[in-house]
Each structure stands twice: as structure tokens, then as C-alpha cells.
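Q: What would this complex look like in 3D?
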Amino acid sequence: MSIFLSRKASRARVREAENARRNRWEILTALSRKQVTRRELIKWGLFTSAGVIVSKSGLSPFIRSAYADSSIPTGLPASPLFGVQPFTQPMPRFDVFRRDPVSVLNPAPMAQSNQTQQPVPAILGGGTGPIEGRPPGPIWAHQRFDVFPPQVAIDLTNEGAKVNNVYNPQVANNQNSGIDPTQPFNPRFHPGLPDQGPLAFWTFNGTFPPKLMIGRYHEPILFREHNLLPDDPNQNGGFGRHTISTHEHNGHHGAENDGFTGAYFFPRQFYDYHYPIVLAGINTINTAATDPRASTPNGSGGLINIPGDWRETMSTHWFHDHMFSFTSQNVYKGMAGMFNIYSGLDRGNEAINDGVNLRLPSGTAKDFGNLEYDVNLMLADKAWDADGQLAMDIFDFDGFLGDQMTVNLVYKPFMEVERRKYRFRILNGAVSRFFKIALSDSSTMIQIANDGNLLPTPVPLTQLDEQGIAERYDIVIDFSRYSVGDKVWMVNLAEHQDGRRPSDDLTVAEALSGNSADPCVGKFLEFRIVRDPAQPDQSQVPATLIPNPDLSAIPVARQRIFEFGRGAGQNTNDPVSTFFGPWGIKTDNNQMYAADFGRVSAAPGFGTREIWTIANGGGGWDHPIHIHFEEGQILARNGSAANVPAWEKGRKDVYRLRPGGSVTLTMQFRDFGGMFMEHCHNTVHEDNAMLLRWEIDNSGAPFLRPLPTPIPSPQGVTFRDPTDIEPTAF
Amino acid sequence: MKMHKVLYARALPWLFAVVAVAVGWADSQPADAAFTSTLSSAVVNVIGTIAGAPESIRFTGTARIDANAVTDPDFGGSTQVVFSVDLTGLTGTGATTNTTFVTPTKLTFVRPLAPVDSVNFTFPVFPSGAPQTTAGRLGKVTVNLVYNPALLRLTQGVVLVAAP
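A: Here is my prediction, written as C-alpha cells for the whole assembly.
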């Protein structure tokens, strides 16, 4: 069974499915505008307790069709392609954010939130409110702002889709499959598909392609995000929420910069995120900055030593909305970008041979951050309506699946490559879909990083592991084995029937056969080998990359168990922080709770190390679990270290549990404090309501124990005591 | 609850119709049903040859297969098998140079449980001791699996190695 109708479906069947979609859309619209809650829909029986829409004719896409003579479900109507063929448009490289001096920011950034008042429109309650949406006061002040004053400003907006007239891929046209960046770049999945309207698609700076932030260690960034989304929450094109909170996934910095789900801000406000970009262990390891492996490019071919643990160097992050209970809608609607972090080890220059630089495929022209052969790929399944506008259906709490594959927000593109090595930073930017990637000729890729962390050793693979939502896999493909004129494709092997889990990992032959009912199985990106490189390939894949930090001498302060499952209860009823849905988390064998960002479920001590076991409470689903703040190391899968595969032996921040499985990991809680999160990154599960808050709050003033919960409003953020503290939290 | 008449002009009839038959509901939902997880393993002798230039490589040794069958009582879905195939116990010998070859390959698959299943995939091989930082040479392995669906256990595994 597929959730999408076959393109060969009868007109009557398609019409019936369209009617069901329209009917669901009305409830969805009311839901997204908070005119009705999920709890009420469940109460009324429109959703079952399992979290799926009731089997009511004209409402559920999966009940038997009035026209059907079998048990085949009606399914959702397929996204119309308007005659567009796959692999007929070039893949755009990411659009690189401009890096400005901090002096351009007006008003100047401050350690504490800027509470200068401005008028608030009547639709948001009128009166006045602060220009910055960051919670006020010392607890939400930028930690160590004086030690790490921002050196680079990225001043951006979040707004509806519009034409991009300032596309900056930072590579020449011939490294961008011939795309001329001086030409307007329209917000559309393909030149043959309609432009996305400003209510259909919301993204950073309002434009395609997706945005790339460039950073380097010890060059702190001030990321000022202006919310230019509509004042009226009803102006959302049917889904999406105009309040936002941007998570820098998985930044090692204070919680005030983490995009906490309850620290969202409103239209007409901005939020200053401060990313110090420091190595974990900065306070305790290599504090004199004597180890050159802990270093950052100096801009002229040399290195600047920095404090911290070089084995904690990170490379590939991303950033995305984390609005409480609306993350899936907002991320799907376009609020996702990537963040390349450069260091002495991974500097994005393949020629500098200083004994530290790993010389991974990148380029040579710039001191650091060359992108010619270092390519960001954001994979996401999308769907659109009969008018070609982005469509989403959140009625199925199992998860939302699109029926069209996009790479860097365009439909099944091609990429021109040279006969040499390339690095690909692959992000699963989907809402609920897992991917499993192979090349169409089943040849070898070399995985070098997992979740943005270079592995201890590279891993040659002919197919990657399943890649859950938010996981990043960095791989190297050597195209020198092909001839000019050859083509090879990236292929998705993971077949879904619903949003709960992949139903089948297909073989390459099965995926290429065209027999899968899942329209996102098969080829999705075409590589065209177009020429020999003009310069010799100087890049390397070293046999040793970054070994794991040895934590064996650090005592384990606590062990905790988190079970992710269904059947959550709720013991709080805060109108802002409490949510309800079929999913939940059970902490240390307490009751399983649905999300409430006012509840404290865990509070590791500052400067400690703990071991956490995260377990899947069922066999019918998978969950990619994300733990914010610092990278962890997987100690065991299903209780055994032998079950940890080679590509998971580095550091990670997203842990796929597998059906019925568990992951035991260890992580440290140091350097910064505040309230963080742990949640399923199937963002539909997260929103409904598989998320919890944990906090580090005992590092001294200004923190309190427990921390007060921020309650945002357009008129300003207030604070409340936690709604609940789980008995094993502290 | 705030109702908006215009927006609900079409949705309201359903809402009221369904409310009329809504079942009682409290702030909790059905707990997870107990799933079962059944692990079975097999160590299979393997002999096979990757034929072709620059030289044929004959592989011998063992492959380990671990199969974990996980049921889905919550949704009544198909039982899935999470199984891994570990080829690191294989050793190859080059027919001409007598070079020893190894592979680091251990792959995991999630497939619906069926009485008989078969997967095939390629795997890279490298001279023993050489850095595994290139594409390597490719072999192809076919894994044929037989399960007892009633017991959720792997009963037979056959692993064949050949040229791709």
C-alpha cells in the first residue's frame, strides 16, 4: 500500500481523494491557526486515540473508496508534475549568507535581550512590546558574551517566498552546473512548475536555494533573525505558524542561542543568536591552547591555536525552526539551512599541508571554506497541490510523507561533476521520511562523518545506513573512476508505506526496477561527469580522521533511561507550555508524558558525564532521537557494543533507535548552561508530543534551580515556575 | 474553544456529527502493546570467487547473520526483521599475486518478515593492511534467508560471493 494514488488512478478516484484532501484541509487550517486544538479533535473523535484521522468517508484518505471494488485505499492525490521530467534542471548549490561586520547591526547586539518597546499590531493584542523576542534578564543573556564578542554578523529575515536577485553560491558557474547567479532565481521546484507563493513557502531571506552559513572556530557569529512573517496567524497558506525559534543543530553554546522550543518570537521582532563556535571542553582541556590540532584558520594559510578538546571538532551543522508543536510545519515550509564549520583539521582547503589539515575535498582558492568540491545536499520529500503550491497534511500523526523528491529544494536535479573526488554533506531535511542512499552502479562511497563529526576512520560503503531525519552523513565520491560523458545516480533504497518507519530496505536492483509503490524510491540525483579537473586533485581521505575523546577517566554521575512510545498521559494543563498527542516519553520508568516545555524531566549536574539509554517503546515505528547541546558517543545498541556499526563509532547527536531497539550513549554537560531538549526528530512525532526539557542549572548565578519557564507574548516574555518536575530529574 | 463560523462552514457538520458519537476520552491514551523481539543468528561458511582483471580473488571464511524479528502489535503491521550481514570473517587470495584481501563490510537491512528472503549487494575489498580510503575493488554477495515465521526465527542462511 502506498499513501499516494498511482498516476494511473481513475479520474473518479482522484476527484474523491481531492475532496477528502479539501475537507481535511479545512480542519487542518483551523488547527494550524490554533482555532481548535488536537486535544479537542481527539475528544470529538475526528482523530482516533492512535492519532490517525477517523475512517469517515470524505475525510480519511485511507478508507475504502466509494468507487473501489477492493480494499485498496483511496490514497492522497499525487503532486502534479505539469509535464516536468526528472533530471532536466541543474542542482543549485546553497545560497551562502553574507558575512558582515558586526558594526552593521542596528541596534548593536547586547548581552541581554534588547527590550526597547515598539507598537504591537492590534491583531497581536496591541499595546507595545520589545523589539527583541529573546527572553529578558540575566538568565537568557548571552553566556560569556564578553569573552566571545561577535566578530561576524549574519543579518537575515524569515519571510514568504520571493525571487532571489542576490544568489551567492560562492562557486563559479561551471561548478554550479551552469547556473548563472546573476539571473533571478525563482522560488519553485522546477522551471516548469509554478512559483511558490509567499504564503505557501516561508524561508530564510524568503528565497531559494536554501541558505548556507559559513563559520570557523573562535570567530563568533551574531545571527540576527528578523521575523517578517505575516502578523495575522491566519495568513499561513493553510499550515505553518508565524512564531519561530531557530535551532542551530547541534551547536555547543548557551541555551539562549539553542532555539529552545518555548523561546519563540513574533512577527516584527528579531532574535539575536550568539554562536561562539568553541570546542567542547574549552574550560577544562587544552586551556592554554598549546595543541595545534585545536585550531582555526587564520585567513592567510596559517593556524590560530584555540582552547578546548580537538577531538570535539565539528564540521556539518544545520539550522531549522523549532517552534513548539509546529516544527514539522515550519521546517517543511522551508525554514531549514546548513552550517559548515571550519577548523584547522577540517578547513575546506585541500592544498594546505601543515600537518594538521586533513585536506578533504574542497578547493584551494581561499584560505578556508572552499566549496568547489565540498557540496551541501539537503534531501527532502515534498508534495504540492493542483496549483503547484506546497501542500502538507498533518492529519496522520504517524508522520507526513511527500511524494516528490527534492535536492536543495528542487525536483530531481542533475549535477555536473569533474573526474575527481567530491565531498558531499548530506542532510536528511525531511519531516518524517528516512533515506538509504546508494549509487546506481552500486559502487563505493566513503563515509567520513556522521552528524557533522568526522569519524575516527573513514568507512567504505556501497550503501549507506538508513539516514533518519536530521542526521548528516558526509561522504566522499571519487568520480575519477568514470569517463567523461558517463552518468551515475544517487538512489533512495528506503521504501515507506507510512510515516512511522521505513517498511523495506530495498536492494539497488529492486529500487531501480520501478516496482515500488513509494514514489520517492529510486533515482533522485543525477551526476553527469562532464570534464577532467583543470587542476590536479590534491585532496585526500586520510586513514585517520578524528578519534573519539576518551571519557573513561571521567566518572559517570548518573544513568537515565528514556522510553519513546505511544500512550502518553498529561498531568499539566498550561495553555502555553502543555501539549498533547499520541506520542510521549517515559523518563526513568516514571509515567509516560506528552510534551510540556514547562516540565523538567532531567537536570544533569554542570560539568558531569552521564550515560543515557534511549529505548523504542514499540516495534511498529522508528524514532531518530535528537539530544541537544553536546555530541554523545554510542556505547551500545540493544545492550551490546558489538552492535555499534563502524559509521556510528564517532560522535553523534541524532540516534536512530530502530524498531524495538535501544541506544546507550554517554555525553557530558559542560561549558554552558540553560534549558535544552530531547525529542524525536520525526518532527510530526515531536510536535505530537514526543519532546522533553532537560536543563543544566547548577553552574551558579544567574541560573536558578530549577529554571523558570519563558512564556512568550508579543507584549513581552514573562516567566513561570515549572509546571512539573519529574521525581528523578535532579 | 474559539469557533470561527466562516472557516467552519464546511467542517462543522462533521464536527457535530462526530461529536455526537464521540467516545469518552481522558488525558491518557492506550499504552504501547507489548511487542516481541526475537533474535536469531547464523554463521555461514562462504566460498566464492570474484573473477576478472587484474586477478581473480577467491574468498573463504564465514559470514555472520544476525536477524532480529520485531512484531508490531500496536498497529497490526507486518513483523520486520532487522538483520545484519557481517563479511569481515572472509579472507580473499589473489590468484596471481597471492595477495590477501579483506573487506570491512557489515551492512544492516530492515525488511518485512517473509518465509524466504533474498538480498544482494556489492562490497569493497582491499589488500590486507592497505588503507581503506579508496573505492577498492568490488565483489557481489547474495544472501538467501529462510525464516520460520511462526517462531520468528532465522532457520537457514546462504551467502554467495561472486563478481558484480
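A: To summarize the key features: Residues 437 and 492 of chain A are 5 Å apart (CA to CA). Chain A touches chain B through 70 residues (CB under 8 Å).
Q: Very helpful, thank you.
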